[in-house]
Amino acid sequence: MRLAPLIGLLLLTACTGTAPLSVTKGSTSLDGISSFAGPMLTFPAKPGIPSLRPNQQISQDFIDLEFHMESGLALPVLTRFEGPISVTMTGHVPASAPDDLAKLVSRLRSEAAIDIRFAAPGSPATITIEFLPKDTLRHLEPTAACFVVPNVSSMAEYRGRRGSAPLDWQLLTRRDRAAIFIPSDTSPQEVRDCLHEETAQAMGPLNDLYRLPDSVFNDDNFQSVLTEFDMLMLKMHYAPELASGMSASDVAARLPGLVARLNPKGQYPGGWSAADTPRAWIDAVGAALSPNSAQAARLPAAKRMLAIAQAQGWQDNRAGFAWFALGRLEAPHDPVAAQKAYSNAARIYASLPDDGVHLSHALMQLAAIALATGHADQAIQLADQALPLARSGQNAALLATLLMIKSEGLLILGHATEAAALRLDSLPAARYGFGSEQEVRLRASEIAALATHGQGG
Fold first, then answer.
1. Position with higher pLDDT, 153 vs 6
2. Chain segment 233-269, per-residue pLDDT in tens
3. Helix axes 416-434 and 396-412, enclosed angle (nearest 10)
4. Distance CA 402, CA 418 (A)
5. How far apart are CA 301 and CA 283, in angstroms?
6. Helices (H) and strands (E) in the chain, counts
7. CA distance 326 to 341
8. pLDDT at 65
9. I need a labelling partner for 418 at 20 to 30 A (CA). Which of 254, 258, 352, 393 fits?
10. Considering the domain boundaries, does residue 222 fall inside one?
11. SS3 for 292?
């Protein structure tokens, strides 16, 4: 399941003192734009970021993803669909979803060699993607943005069979059908992200591992679309050497030859280097960033995240995430500490083999702090550094936010014409990343208020 976003794109109260921003009507930098109708940004169905790791490490990743669930519970056997996979969409299907799903299906066929296609109209499907109001899904799964359930094909069927043995992933010996539930009233980007992660988990591994920087199988939610690593995991999952019902030892015995065949570029020396993630750190992530956590418990939990990361000696994305979480939670009352935390996150993220996806988020937060503290030139520089990374990561919401920050910085420096043009340029990305005009205006209002604060307004 894809968790409700933990990282957030901006903590815009972060740099303005302890009180939330008070944004009055008319403060938005998008005032004067008469119409928000127009094209949305679209991303090509290009291959995901490359996977750079030895096959011995990939084999261990595969075992850990396949034989555990996100909760930590063990799965006794590998399960998959045996035969062609068909997919269909039902409910209030968002306008952007058919194209994004078509791109995903095309990539799954070409990159993961999976026999998947759209079901014929009116025919039953292996995987049914049902779109429902966000409130309906939150009532069932409060922390999930979207989720997948085995052995059902609709929400009505899920409600009627909830809690029964056939819906327990641990009791499956093979997969026959599954339903994915996605909000119908969210942004196109969130719909796409749910399509990628939940379709991958409906077909393949059920676990998420915080140690993976280049994968959607990671609850930090930085990766938006399936990567080369993810496609390799799915390709291995459906390789002819494997079958439903195999134990971990059965699969492990076949992995050396299997991964060598499917990933010849990974045949070089190197073993498993990253330590497992302690459950105490995972619990601290939930306490720090879950929307259900008590406010008073969040900052101490983020500090626990960092203390555990440092005790483990991590210098990977988990260490970066600990600093990132601390920055997010320090921001409302201590912008200086937040800037230090985000800078440490950026330093670590700059070394990751993730095509700059993580780094772009840290740079955006630093750009927002720079804007709010009166350093417009620095905000522009940080936004310029992050913009190509956001494009490469196919994150339209992040891209639009960076363009808005840069626009406000240009306005402060007296480049009003260039700032206005950039505001218009941000709209296609904002339409895809945020969805409604209301959400786009809200984000622009928050950033405009940051700029006002930075000028002493």
1. 153
2. 999 999 999 999 999 999 999 999 999 999 999 888 8
3. 160
4. 15
5. 9
6. 16, 6
7. 6
8. 97
9. 393
10. yes
11. coil
Distance CA 197, CA 184 (A): 16
Is 89 within 8 Å of 77 (Cβ atoms)?
no
CA 14, distance to chain mean position in Å, is: 22
pLDDT in tens, 266-299: 888 876 566 789 999 999 999 998 877 888 899 9
Q: Provide the pLDDT for residue 20.
A: 26
**SS3 category, 81:** strand
- Sequence-distant (6+) residues with CB within 8 A of 115 are 83, 84, 85, 109
Q: What's the total number of domains in the chain?
A: 1
CA–CA distance, 161 with 101 (Å, rounded to integer):
27
**pLDDT value at 4 more than 80:** no
For residue 15, give the nearest of 295, 386, 366 by alpha carbon. Answer: 366
324, two tokens: 């990132």
**CA dist 126 to 106, 150, 169, 196, 296, Å?**
17, 10, 16, 16, 45
Q: Are 327 and 347 in contact (CB under 8 A)?
A: no
pTM: 0.91
Does 184 map to a domain? no
Residues in the chain: 457
Residue 60 CA to residue 62 CA, distance in Å, equals: 5
Question: What whole-number distance in Å separates Cα of residue 15 and Cα of residue 100?
Answer: 36
Amino acid at 372: A
Instruction: Phi first, then psi: give them for residue 137, nearest 5 degrees.
Output: -70, -40
Cβ neighbours for 307, distance < 8 A, ≥ 6 positions apart: none
> How far is it, in rounded angstroms, from Cα 283 to Cα 327?
18
Per-residue pLDDT of 215-236, as tens digits, reads 999 989 899 899 999 999 999 9
SS3 22: coil
- Structural domain contains residue 138: no
Domain hosting residue 254, numbered range: 50-79+204-208+218-274
Q: Across-strand partners of 354?
A: none
22, pLDDT greater than 60: no
According to the model, what pLDDT value does residue 271 have? Answer: 60
**Both tokens of residue 40?**
């949305």
Q: How far apart are CA 147 and CA 141, in angstroms?
A: 8
The gap between the terminal CA atoms of the chain, to the nearest Å, is 43
210, two tokens: 């915080």
Q: SS3 for 68?
A: strand
Nearest to 288 by CA among 280, 279, 297: 297
DSSP-derived 3-state class of residue 47:
coil
> DSSP of 105-173, one letter per residue?
HHHHHHHS---EEEPPTTS--SEEEEEE-HHHHHHH-TTEEEEEEET-SSHHHHHHHTTSGGG-GGG-S
Closest by CA position to 291, among listed 74, 441, 142, 129: 142
